[in-house]
Amino acid sequence: MTTRFSRPRLIDETDQRYRAHVEQMKLLRSNQRAIRPPRARDLFGSEAEAALRDWLAQQITLSERRIVEYLEHRGRQAVTKYRELDAVWILDPKTIHVFEIKASMKAASLRRAIRQLRDTQTILRMLFPKVHTTILLVDTGIPQTPEESAAQLAEWIATHPDRPPPNEPPPTLADVLANLPQVRRADSLAALPDDPELVGLIRFSVDDIIALAGAENLHLDWDEDEEEEGDAETSEAAPYIYSSSESEPDEEDNPLAAALRKAMEDRARG
């Protein structure tokens, strides 16, 4: 089914409609069962994002308007959604630069990041003719050589004797980039590509993040964590949260919408 976007707005977190959306999400979560607490690796990802946002702010002027409200059309249905962008640089009224900050131990996560950025680019082009995109990758253990990849696979098999092994070793960063010709690696903001059709990539190590934020401010004890969850190629998670619908939605197609309505009805009855 073809997805179309319309009516985008680039807003900050004080926007009234967005605040109402946040309150709806709080209401929904208050009626859900408790979820597991975040792992150290999850917390580190948030801390790395904050550190890199500060790093960017020292070099460019970041905008507080980093939330995109838009309509997503699927068939006859139009759903209001929000994307929270990691960092936004508005160069002039016609040019914007969006940064996606991703901490991962899987090189394949770049593919999903690019898909997210392409959708964001499509939406923002209704507001800005030029939309540049860059991924700030925090490498938390991506194998750099075939030998490292084979060693990671062997370690996984040794620590998971009761689970079927993966069909092949995890890809290296070079393996994934070989199939992503639109990505251009850079060592600095100044070296990023000028062409909006290309995606910039700046890689940071864990040591780089420690140098920026200080080890005492980071969750670095990952020994008790399971391996990174999710498959970057098959995950259906999207960088948006459901807000509302402008038509009568099918609850089977929108389980979160149905859950939200039920939560609000239960709260009203209570």
Structural class: alpha/beta
Number of helices: 7
Could you describe the largest sheet, including whether it forms a barrel?
5 strands, mixed
Encode the helix/strand succession as letters.
EHHEEEEHEHHEEHEH
Low-pLDDT ranges: 229-270
- Number of DSSP strands? 9
Strand content: 15-25%
What is the domain total for the residues? 1
Overall pLDDT metric: 83
N→C terminal distance: 39 Å
State Rg.
20 Å
* Helix residue percentage: 25-40%
- The 3D shape can be described as globular
In spatial order, strands of the major sheet run: 4-5-6-8-7
Describe it for me?
Residues 222-234 have a biased composition (Acidic residues). Residues 220-270 are annotated as: Disordered. Residues 235-246 have a biased composition (Low complexity). It is a single chain. By secondary structure, the protein is α/β, with parallel strands linked by helices. The chain has one domain (3-269). 34% of the residues lie in helices and 25% in strands. It has a five-stranded mixed β-sheet. A four-stranded antiparallel β-sheet has the order 1-2-3-9. Helix 1 (16-30) crosses helix 7.
Compact summary:
This protein has 270 residues and is of the alpha/beta class.
Question: What does the secondary structure layout of this molecule look like, with pairings?
Answer:
Blueprint: E1 3-11, H1 16-30, H2 40-57, E2 67-74, E3 77-84, E4 87-92, E5 95-104, H3 109-124, E6 130-139, H4 146-159, H5 173-178, E7 183-185, E8 199-205, H6 206-213, E9 240-245, H7 255-269
Parallel strand pairs: 5-6, 6-8, 7-8
Antiparallel strand pairs: 1-2, 2-3, 3-9, 4-5
Helix pairs in contact: 1-7
